[in-house]
Amino acid sequence: MTRREVVINALNHIETEVIPYHLDFTEQALEQLIEYTKDPEIEHKMGEFLYYKQYWGWPTEMPEKPGYFKDEFGVEWNRNGADKDIGLPDVYQIKDMGDNDYVFPKCDEARLRKECEEMTKDKVKDDRFLMYGFGFLMFERAWSIAGMEEVLCGMVSSPEETLKFFNKIGDYYCHLVDIALEYDFDGIYFGDDWGQQRGLIMGLAHWRTYIKPQMAKLYKRVKDKGLFVLQHSCGDCHELFDDLIEIGLDCYQTFQPEVYDIKEVKEKYGNKLAFWGGISTQQVLPYVSPDEVKGEVDKIAKVLMPGGGLIMAPTHALAFDVPPENILAMVKAFKDLKR
């Protein structure tokens, strides 16, 4: 059975002998792992079951401002702080959600098509589950352009204008998803953080008003092509699971044990949603020993494996505070998992 077939079975809630797994790295974590192993190709030797790249505006370096990157949406990202992979917006493009004339850019369609083509041309040789990703999607795209406070206040004080803005974001990404769907992917991955440690950032009513209709449009395009829909959102999104299932979600990532009662959620939604994650980057991987990492993998897998629907993974891209020894121990534990 190929890795692609194993993932597809997992997403279809079919138990398999081996358990699919995946890892993402921040630049700092990968550099540390390469230094520790003395192997510049170590990332490609992990045996992961999924492969994807993400569009989130293609930030490019600004030579006149070291450490700053400007994306297609005109947002300048400052990576001089602790977060050197994404950074923080330096100047927002919209000052008033109730009165703005922001014009969405024209995407570099040729670049997107080239990336999709390069990813899918060797699909016969690469047996991993293949998907294209769209990160910083709805809510994150809004606050990166206008600021978190302005977007949240706009949901209350300028609902018509704010809804119009979210519709524009949705239309922008519908066009990009349509392009990706012309290529031979197995699924489409969406990334957009909606949760806090406890509950939603914007609340359920506002999520349903401003974000759900746009996600429904995007999901429908993917489902109409017969592909799988995978959604990333950090934080506590339990209030959304029924809505997400309703509009077509197949797999939720990231499944954080410090946020969810994973046994309870698995029992309630395990026959409807697949879960991707489980190994905490917040409370486990940076702090425990390699032996304890194996114990955690075994403990989480015991709860989530029955009935399929599991992709084992860290709950976020591995950061600089995760020791390389723990990364290697986690991968070995993933490989050793058997139903």
Tell me what the structure shows.
The chain has helices spanning 3-11, 27-37, 109-120, 139-146, 148-157, 159-180, 204-224, 241-247, 262-269, 290-304, 324-336, and strands at residues 50-55, 60-61, 68-70, 76-78, 88-89, 129-134, 187-191, 228-232, 251-255, 274-279, 310-314. It is of the alpha/beta class and 339 residues long. Strands 1-6-7-8-9-10-11 form a seven-stranded parallel β-sheet. Strands 2-3-4-5 form a four-stranded antiparallel β-sheet, with no helix packed on it. Helix 5 (148-157) crosses helix 6 (159-180). The two termini are 15 Å apart. The mean pLDDT is 96.
Topology:
Layout: H1 3-11, H2 27-37, E1 50-55, E2 60-61, E3 68-70, E4 76-78, E5 88-89, H3 109-120, E6 129-134, H4 139-146, H5 148-157, H6 159-180, E7 187-191, H7 204-224, E8 228-232, H8 241-247, E9 251-255, H9 262-269, E10 274-279, H10 290-304, E11 310-314, H11 324-336
Parallel strand pairs: 1-6, 6-7, 7-8, 8-9, 9-10, 10-11
Antiparallel strand pairs: 2-3, 3-4, 4-5
Helix pairs in contact: 4-5, 5-6, 6-7, 10-11
